[in-house]
Specification:
The complex is a heterodimer of chains A (314) and B (286).
Chain A (H helix, E strand, L loop, with lengths): L1 H14 L4 H6 L6 H10 L6 H13 L13 H5 L2 H29 L4 H15 L2 H15 L13 H35 L2 H8 L4 H37 L5 H10 L3 H29 L12 H10 L1
Helix pairs in contact in A: 1-13, 6-7, 6-9, 6-11, 7-9, 8-9, 8-11, 9-11, 11-12, 11-13, 11-14, 12-13
Chain B lengths: L8 H11 L4 H18 L35 H37 L1 H16 L2 H12 L3 H25 L5 H8 L4 H9 L4 H24 L11 H8 L8 H27 L6
Classes of the chains: A mainly alpha (314), B mainly alpha (286).
């Protein structure tokens, strides 16, 4: 996937209307000498595959290219911004797991009740509404109207202050993922709740909390697998959320670069975000192996571990 | 009882609704969509939305003549929101129709003809689905430029694979039914069997997905215009309005609330109606 994506990202330069050399010059006045020097600098006269290989190897060595707009190396522009985006995405991921899984479990236990329908309706709403619209609405309600949270910015550096500033962005970013986690958890748990072993355990007089733990353990696998698929949307979501809340992260950098057609920055940031998505997917895949006793036959442990692991996560 | 006394019209409607599992939320969604479609297709509703009044500037809701106030250029927020329905409906409709058509064409061919066509289509779908589509849409539409319809085209390429895969798997489940074999034995051509006999049995799925696609298209397109890509700055568009409104939150909150609520409600309505259709047609929800 990374290879295909890197090719698409690289091809962007050629998809732009007009001569790539002119695109690279940007808004500067065009002279034949400048065109020639740009062509030489970017090796535009080489065969395309050679240019692609040069770009990829450069990327792997940490050379992310140079911005057309500012003339700064992209790696320098990214510094500081990457951490902000990482914090935002990781917090949003944790929040959606921490709220989504319990909410889904509760909804499944009270299947058909008002609480279940309420949770389900909220999930549908959060799943369908675009994050920036939710973000602006919550910005108005909680920051402007009620005044509970700051409107813009990241605060003055203290951890608590940062968390306070990040609260609305994180919740906005988490909304979509949270909703899909609720839905998946609910469906997976309903299957467990209606299963034979649940009825059997209950008739044996096992405590409800113990039954729930076993159910969560068994439902953990489908939950984690499908969570991995939606986590990737967190990374794309940061672009919109950072713009909504005026946060200086990778996402807002990408949005700016796209508006100014700053191709090297766009290419570098897109590829970085793609790497982030791939890493998330890989982490989830490993987690699935850890969670599924059938997939880790080598390390022989009791299957109870699975339950405790899933319990800790919830 | 209903058999003896002819039921009044409302009662008949209620019975029909109950038979089709029509919930209040779905009815409200349908009404909401009807209103938005009317706004989008009858330009008279949003006439004068782009009239500027720079001297007036941004005003709060309740300003005489402007129920919801005005934006920084003195444009009426209510009229802008009504006029914005056009880009919110037309583009997503194009995306939904085109990707459903592509889905039918490629999905049915892959399922029914199999062989190398299936292989090529499936690989294309796998690869596209593994890419972060919204991210790519933002980047590609932004860098290529070219406005609204280029964004629509980019979306079609990125979102059609979802429909192709869905239709392919739905068709695959039906391919071996006896009546299709019979149609083949009667000497009907491949395409006649595919589109005349295989397509009708999955039409419930197609109808439901039309609405779900429109929800996705609306969210994606308005995301682009929120980032300042896609529509031109002068055009009325909900995403664009929300972006402008970020600076006006303290002066005229309605500038953000009106298009924000419009997007959220319309997206939810598309999803609810789509879900309802798929439930009604008996397609299990993924």
């Amino acid at each position: 996937m990374l290879v295909v994506l890197s090719m698409i990202v690289f091809a962007l330069l050629y998809l732009m209307p007009g001569d790539p050399a002119r695109s690279l010059i940007g808004a500067r006045p065009v002279s034949p000498e400048l065109l020639a020097s740009i062509r030489a600098e970017y090796h535009l006269d080489d065969p395309i595959w050679e240019q692609y290989l040069r770009w990829v190897t450069g990327f792997l060595h940490g050379d992310l290219g140079t911005s057309i707009k500012t003339g700064l190396p992209v790696s320098q522009m990214i510094q500081g911004r990457a951490e902000v985006t990482l914090q935002l995405a990781v917090l949003a991921g944790l929040v959606s797991a921490a709220i989504g899984i319990p909410a889904g479990v509760i909804a499944a236990h009270r299947q058909g009740s008002a609480l279940d329908r309420g949770i389900n309706a909220t999930a549908v709403a959060m799943l369908s509404a675009p994050s920036f619209a939710l973000g602006l609405l919550s910005l108005y309600v909680f920051a402007v109207w009620l005044g509970w949270f700051p409107v813009y910015g990241l605060g003055d550096g203290g951890t608590l202050d940062l968390l306070w500033h990040l609260f609305l962005p994180v919740m906005t970013l988490a909304a979509g993922v949270l909703a899909s986690i609720i839905k998946v958890t609910r469906i997976a748990m309903i299957r467990e709740v209606n299963s034979d072993y649940t009825g059997f355990s209950r008739s044996r007089g096992l405590r409800e909390s113990k039954i729930t733990r076993a159910q969560v353990g068994n439902a953990a696998l489908p939950i984690v697998t499908s969570t991995g698929l939606v986590l990737a949307t967190l990374v794309s979501g940061t672009v919109l959320v950072e713009v909504t809340f005026a946060i200086g992260g990778l996402g807002s950098l990408l949005a700016e670069a796209v508006t100014f057609k700053d191709v090297p920055v766009v290419q570098a940031v897109t590829l970085l975000l793609a790497v982030a998505i791939c890493t998330t997917t890989a982490v989830v895949d490993t987690l699935v192996i850890v969670l599924d006793p059938r997939l880790r036959r080598r390390r022989r442990r009791k299957s109870r571990n699975v339950t405790t692991l899933a319990g800790a996560e919830a | 009882m209903t058999a003896i006394t002819a039921p009044a019209a409302p009662a008949r409607w209620l019975a029909w609704g109950r038979r089709n599992k029509l919930s209040a939320a779905v009815v409200i969604s349908m009404i909401e969509l009807l209103v938005v479609f009317a706004w989008a297709l009858i330009p008279a509703f949003g006439a004068g939305a782009l009239d500027q009044d720079i001297l007036l500037g941004a005003t709060p809701p309740g300003t005489p003549g402007h129920l919801l106030g005005t934006d920084a250029l003195g444009r009426d927020i209510w009229l802008l929101t009504v006029a914005g329905a056009q880009t919110a409906i037309v583009g997503p409709m194009a995306i939904a129709l085109a990707s459903i058509l592509l889905g039918l064409l490629l999905g049915l061919s892959a399922a029914y003809l199999g062989g190398w066509i299936d292989w090529v289509v499936s690989r294309f779908v796998d690869i596209t689905l593994s890419l972060p589509s919204l991210l790519l849409a933002i980047v590609a539409a932004g860098v290529i430029g070219g406005g609204y319809w280029v964004s629509v085209a980019v979306m079609i390429v990125l979102f059609a694979p979802f429909d192709i895969r869905l239709i392919r798997s739905a068709a695959l489940a039906r391919v071996h039914e006896p009546y299709l074999e019979a149609a083949k034995l009667l000497g009907l051509g491949r395409f006649r069997v595919m589109f005349g006999h295989l397509m009708p049995v999955i039409r419930g799925l197609v109808g439901a997905n039309l609405f779900l696609d429109m929800a996705v298209g609306l969210v994606a397109l308005s995301s682009l215009s929120f980032l300042g890509l896609g529509v031109s700055p002068q055009q009325a568009d909900w995403g664009r309005q929300l972006n402008d409104a970020r600076a006006l939150l303290f002066i005229n909150p309605a500038a953000a609330i009106a298009p924000g609520v419009a997007i959220v409600l319309t997206a939810i309505a598309f999803n609810l109606v789509g879900d309802w259709l798929s439930e009604r047609s008996g397609v299990a929800e993924g």
